[in-house]
Amino acid sequence: MASFPIRETFVDSWKALLDALHSDSVIPKQTSQGGHYRAPFVFRGMSDSEWPLASSLERLKSPSKVVEPALLRSFRKYAPRGTFARDSDWEALSVAQHNGLPTRLLDWSVSPLIAVHFATAEREYFSKHGVIWCVNVIALRDQILPAKIAKPIQRAPAAVYDVILLEAAYSGLADFDATKANLGKACIFFEPPSLDARIANQTGILSAMNGADVSHQRYMEKVATIHPDVVHRIVIDKDAKSEIRDKLDQNNIHERMLFPGLPGLCTWLKRYYGPA
Asked: For the range 88-95, what are the long-range contacts, defined as Cβ-Cβ under 8 Å and sequence gap of 24 or more?
């Protein structure tokens, strides 16, 4: 297993996974919210625990700073009329990510079990340990982000940005990227627009670094070194993936629900009736 300078919890069963994802440190009782249990974390599931946090733009292996503007410019030019509701870099970036264009963004979810789905859905990786990345976005906002970047969401108040808040703070990606020169590297999380039922069903959240070529992985490693409770990983034993996958299906966490439409239905049926 790759060595990450990040606190890890290793789980080898469905029960151990549920305990880790629903511990009081992950979903604490919030006295300020009427005593409800609310998680300050967002979650990202990946099939192989050795994979880094790398955006699809990074994985493209082209010069990110050069390629990103060209990708977005062409995407806006050739997208069908009505694709975008507003003239916004942030909306265009969200729509591009949602449709498979390489972007600087990473997908996360408010739901830990939806993250587990993405860590266990690909049977070709059942020989690999899965992983759930957990980031405390409230602590990131209040303890780590530069005050100038954190202030709009603190004032809202909100746990993360949305597209409207982002547009008000940074009219375009270039304005956001310009913060790196004076404030250093920073990662923001934001709610994408509800483009369709898929985003709503997955309770999706996106993250972006202030630079097309700035690494999520290196940033999170640095944060975890200084603030070990803000970023941690839950590693899923490869031998537990089959049990966990079946119990997710039993709890209605599967492609038919997360990807509404015929493609999601077919993907679910193919996996559900395939070998264990």
From this structure: 88/163, 88/167, 89/171, 89/172, 89/173, 90/163, 90/166, 90/167, 90/173, 90/190, 91/163, 91/193, 93/173, 93/208, 94/163, 94/192, 94/193, 94/195, 94/206, 95/195
pTM over 0.90: yes
Distance, in Å, from the CA atom of 104 to the CA atom of 186, rounded to the nearest integer, reads 13
Query: How many other CB atoms sit within 10 Å of the CB of residue 242?
Result: 14
Tell me the pLDDT of the chain averaged across its residues: 93
- What pLDDT, in 10s, does the model give residues 139-149? 999 999 999 99
- Predicted confidence (pLDDT) per residue in 65-87, tens digit: 999 999 999 999 999 988 888 88
- For 63-87, give one letter per residue: b (16+ CB within 10 A) or e: ebeebbeebbeebeeeeeeeebeee
Q: Are 109 and 198 in contact (CB under 8 A)?
A: no
Give Cα 86 distance to the centre of its chain.
24
